[in-house]
Design a protein that fits this description.
By secondary structure, the chain is of the alpha/beta class. The chain is built from nine helices and eight strands. Helix 6 runs parallel beside helix 8. The radius of gyration is 17 Å and the shape is globular. The termini are far apart.
Length: 257
């Protein structure tokens, strides 16, 4: 039976969260499951995904998905197509801050990632996940999103992505802007805007959201906000079925692009 927008209107909402086995992604997946969504917990490592889904419990289903490997993205889409026939919500959360030596302090990573000395190999590795991974997953899942009655895409970004904010001389985070992580999130925001502009006529809303400076594995747990605090705004945007299109927000409200 062909799945149409009408036939999915009254069915359980289906969501896919990438990088959902830990951190903010896990919190988003958990909140969606608690709010009645069938949630696919995307994880590069299937056993980590299984553990996360088991911890969330009811409504959570692990799915192997490495955003840098098209074969896993395609397989995940085929699985969701077979099981549900549509996708109401895609949360592109998977992201990495660097690809160098693990265990370094945030300060050491920032210093290494500066424009004058950043390794092009590291830039390519991080952008492969944060930029091209987001684009690949979104393109592959789009046919499923188009089969939902009012689909949404939420891209987990960073305040560092805001060029206008960083350009302000009074911005505290200026020294943290780099060509590896920060610029990758700026590029991801540009992809967010491109999809938002293209898909608005199809009633598919695309938004970017920053968790703020949250203590996660992304920054060696040196963030100033707890995981619970950091996840609040991404969860709010993910659950907001009637919100606007093409917004970029964080814990303290809207960001400038």
């Amino acid at each position: 039976m062909e799945h149409t927008k009408e036939s999915t209107a009254n069915k359980q909402r289906v969501a896919l969260v990438t990088g959902a086995n830990q951190g903010v992604g896990f919190q988003i997946a958990k909140a969606l499951a608690e709010n009645g969504y069938k949630v696919y917990v995307g994880s590069r490592n299937s056993s980590n995904g299984e553990k996360a889904a088991a911890e969330i419990g009811f409504n959570a289903h692990a799915i192997e998905l490495d955003v840098t490997k098209q074969s896993t993205i395609t397989a995940a889409a085929a699985h969701i197509e077979k099981e549900d026939g549509h996708l109401d919500l895609l949360v592109n959360n998977a992201g990495i801050s660097h690809a160098g030596q693990p265990g370094r302090t945030l300060e050491e990573v920032v210093e290494t990632n500066r424009a004058s000395k950043a390794s092009l190999d590291e830039v390519r590795t991080v952008w492969e996940t944060n930029v091209f991974g987001t684009l690949a997953v979104t393109q592959t899942m789009l046919p499923l999103l188009r089969k939902a009655s009012a689909a949404r895409i939420v891209n987990v970004s960073s305040g560092l992505a805001s060029l206008s904010w960083i350009a302000d001389p009074d911005t505290w985070a200026r020294e943290h802007f780099d060509v590896v992580y920060a610029a990758s999130k700026t590029a991801m925001n540009a992809i967010t805007m491109a999809f938002a502009l293209e898909l608005e006529k199809e009633n598919i809303k695309v938004n970017a959201v920053s968790p703020g400076f949250t203590a996660t594995a992304l920054n060696n747990f040196q963030g100033t906000d707890s995981l619970e605090v950091g996840a609040r705004e991404p969860i709010r945007v993910a659950l907001d079925t009637n919100g606007p299109n093409m917004t970029f927000t964080g814990p303290e409200g809207p960001y400038t692009w």
